[in-house]
Write the C-alpha coordinates for this entry.
Amino acid sequence: QLVAGALMRHNQAGLAIPDLPLAFGELLPPTDQSGLEAANRMRNWDYHLNGQMTLAQVWMHFAHRAGAVIVTIAVLATLISVFRNLRRHRAIFGLAVILTGLVITQFCIGVLTVYLQKPADIASLHVAIGAVTFMTAAQLLAVLARQVVGAAVATDRFEADAKSRDPRLAAA
Protein backbone atom coordinates (compact mmCIF):
# COMPACT_ATOMS: atom_id res chain seq x y z
CA GLN A 1 0.00 0.00 0.00
CA LEU A 2 2.88 2.31 0.81
CA VAL A 3 4.45 1.60 -2.59
CA ALA A 4 1.13 2.21 -4.39
CA GLY A 5 0.80 5.55 -2.57
CA ALA A 6 4.38 6.55 -3.43
CA LEU A 7 3.86 5.65 -7.09
CA MET A 8 0.65 7.65 -7.16
CA ARG A 9 2.27 10.65 -5.47
CA HIS A 10 5.38 10.70 -7.66
CA ASN A 11 3.35 10.30 -10.85
CA GLN A 12 1.06 13.22 -9.97
CA ALA A 13 -1.95 10.93 -9.75
CA GLY A 14 -3.21 12.20 -6.39
CA LEU A 15 -6.39 13.65 -7.87
CA ALA A 16 -6.61 11.46 -10.95
CA ILE A 17 -10.01 10.36 -9.61
CA PRO A 18 -11.59 13.38 -7.91
CA ASP A 19 -14.82 11.81 -6.59
CA LEU A 20 -15.50 9.37 -3.79
CA PRO A 21 -16.61 6.67 -3.21
CA LEU A 22 -17.10 6.16 -6.94
CA ALA A 23 -14.68 6.78 -9.78
CA PHE A 24 -16.15 9.35 -12.16
CA GLY A 25 -19.59 8.27 -11.03
CA GLU A 26 -18.90 4.59 -11.76
CA LEU A 27 -17.75 1.60 -9.73
CA LEU A 28 -14.59 1.26 -11.87
CA PRO A 29 -12.59 3.98 -13.61
CA PRO A 30 -12.38 4.16 -17.42
CA THR A 31 -10.47 1.48 -19.28
CA ASP A 32 -10.27 3.00 -22.76
CA GLN A 33 -9.40 6.30 -24.42
CA SER A 34 -13.00 7.47 -24.91
CA GLY A 35 -13.79 6.83 -21.25
CA LEU A 36 -10.63 8.67 -20.25
CA GLU A 37 -11.60 11.68 -22.37
CA ALA A 38 -15.00 11.81 -20.64
CA ALA A 39 -13.31 11.47 -17.24
CA ASN A 40 -10.90 14.31 -18.01
CA ARG A 41 -13.81 16.52 -19.07
CA MET A 42 -15.50 15.74 -15.75
CA ARG A 43 -12.30 16.59 -13.86
CA ASN A 44 -12.02 19.91 -15.70
CA TRP A 45 -15.65 21.03 -15.66
CA ASP A 46 -17.15 19.50 -12.52
CA TYR A 47 -14.10 19.64 -10.25
CA HIS A 48 -12.22 22.59 -11.82
CA LEU A 49 -9.00 20.59 -12.02
CA ASN A 50 -6.53 21.51 -14.75
CA GLY A 51 -4.58 19.06 -16.85
CA GLN A 52 -5.27 15.74 -18.46
CA MET A 53 -4.78 12.45 -16.66
CA THR A 54 -3.58 9.29 -18.36
CA LEU A 55 -5.12 5.85 -17.90
CA ALA A 56 -1.98 4.85 -15.98
CA GLN A 57 -2.47 7.71 -13.51
CA VAL A 58 -6.14 6.91 -13.07
CA TRP A 59 -5.45 3.23 -12.40
CA MET A 60 -2.55 4.03 -10.03
CA HIS A 61 -4.97 6.13 -8.04
CA PHE A 62 -7.61 3.42 -8.15
CA ALA A 63 -5.08 0.77 -7.04
CA HIS A 64 -4.23 2.90 -3.99
CA ARG A 65 -7.93 3.22 -3.12
CA ALA A 66 -8.54 -0.51 -3.54
CA GLY A 67 -5.44 -1.22 -1.47
CA ALA A 68 -6.77 1.03 1.28
CA VAL A 69 -9.96 -1.00 1.47
CA ILE A 70 -8.03 -4.29 1.50
CA VAL A 71 -5.59 -3.10 4.17
CA THR A 72 -8.42 -1.77 6.34
CA ILE A 73 -10.28 -5.09 6.16
CA ALA A 74 -7.07 -7.05 6.87
CA VAL A 75 -6.21 -4.90 9.89
CA LEU A 76 -9.74 -5.17 11.29
CA ALA A 77 -9.58 -8.97 10.83
CA THR A 78 -6.21 -8.96 12.61
CA LEU A 79 -7.66 -6.99 15.51
CA ILE A 80 -10.56 -9.43 15.82
CA SER A 81 -8.18 -12.41 15.74
CA VAL A 82 -5.88 -10.85 18.34
CA PHE A 83 -8.87 -9.99 20.52
CA ARG A 84 -10.18 -13.56 20.33
CA ASN A 85 -6.86 -15.36 20.77
CA LEU A 86 -4.18 -13.09 22.21
CA ARG A 87 -5.86 -10.34 24.19
CA ARG A 88 -3.98 -11.40 27.33
CA HIS A 89 -0.70 -10.52 25.61
CA ARG A 90 -0.68 -6.81 26.35
CA ALA A 91 2.02 -5.87 23.84
CA ILE A 92 0.33 -7.70 20.97
CA PHE A 93 -3.14 -6.46 21.85
CA GLY A 94 -1.94 -2.88 22.36
CA LEU A 95 -0.11 -2.80 19.02
CA ALA A 96 -3.14 -4.27 17.24
CA VAL A 97 -5.39 -1.57 18.71
CA ILE A 98 -2.90 1.19 17.82
CA LEU A 99 -2.52 -0.19 14.28
CA THR A 100 -6.29 -0.27 13.84
CA GLY A 101 -6.59 3.32 15.03
CA LEU A 102 -3.83 4.43 12.67
CA VAL A 103 -5.39 2.63 9.68
CA ILE A 104 -8.81 4.12 10.35
CA THR A 105 -7.25 7.58 10.75
CA GLN A 106 -5.21 7.04 7.58
CA PHE A 107 -8.31 5.98 5.66
CA CYS A 108 -10.23 9.07 6.82
CA ILE A 109 -7.37 11.44 6.01
CA GLY A 110 -7.07 9.85 2.56
CA VAL A 111 -10.77 10.51 1.94
CA LEU A 112 -10.33 14.06 3.21
CA THR A 113 -7.37 14.55 0.89
CA VAL A 114 -9.57 13.79 -2.11
CA TYR A 115 -12.60 15.76 -0.89
CA LEU A 116 -10.50 18.86 -0.20
CA GLN A 117 -8.62 18.46 -3.49
CA LYS A 118 -5.28 17.55 -1.96
CA PRO A 119 -4.16 20.45 0.22
CA ALA A 120 -0.43 20.11 0.93
CA ASP A 121 -0.76 19.91 4.71
CA ILE A 122 -3.43 17.18 4.66
CA ALA A 123 -1.60 15.21 1.94
CA SER A 124 1.66 15.44 3.92
CA LEU A 125 -0.12 14.27 7.06
CA HIS A 126 -1.47 11.32 5.08
CA VAL A 127 2.08 10.40 4.02
CA ALA A 128 3.44 10.78 7.57
CA ILE A 129 0.71 8.66 9.14
CA GLY A 130 1.29 6.07 6.41
CA ALA A 131 4.91 5.78 7.53
CA VAL A 132 3.92 5.45 11.20
CA THR A 133 1.30 2.87 10.23
CA PHE A 134 3.90 0.83 8.34
CA MET A 135 6.29 1.03 11.30
CA THR A 136 3.56 -0.08 13.72
CA ALA A 137 2.57 -3.00 11.48
CA ALA A 138 6.23 -4.09 11.28
CA GLN A 139 6.53 -3.88 15.06
CA LEU A 140 3.37 -5.95 15.53
CA LEU A 141 4.72 -8.54 13.11
CA ALA A 142 8.02 -8.68 15.00
CA VAL A 143 6.28 -9.15 18.35
CA LEU A 144 4.00 -11.84 16.91
CA ALA A 145 6.96 -13.61 15.30
CA ARG A 146 8.85 -13.56 18.59
CA GLN A 147 5.78 -14.97 20.32
CA VAL A 148 5.44 -17.79 17.78
CA VAL A 149 9.18 -18.60 17.73
CA GLY A 150 9.28 -18.42 21.52
CA ALA A 151 6.38 -20.86 21.74
CA ALA A 152 8.07 -23.22 19.28
CA VAL A 153 11.35 -23.09 21.20
CA ALA A 154 9.53 -23.70 24.47
CA THR A 155 7.69 -26.68 22.94
CA ASP A 156 10.95 -28.13 21.58
CA ARG A 157 12.60 -27.75 24.98
CA PHE A 158 9.62 -29.31 26.73
CA GLU A 159 9.68 -32.29 24.37
CA ALA A 160 13.45 -32.68 24.78
CA ASP A 161 13.13 -32.57 28.60
CA ALA A 162 10.28 -35.06 28.52
CA LYS A 163 12.25 -37.46 26.27
CA SER A 164 15.28 -37.27 28.53
CA ARG A 165 13.15 -38.23 31.55
CA ASP A 166 11.02 -40.93 29.96
CA PRO A 167 12.74 -43.54 27.76
CA ARG A 168 9.41 -44.49 26.15
CA LEU A 169 9.19 -40.96 24.63
CA ALA A 170 12.77 -41.09 23.38
CA ALA A 171 11.81 -43.94 21.05
CA ALA A 172 8.90 -41.95 19.59
Summary: The chain has a mean pLDDT of 90.
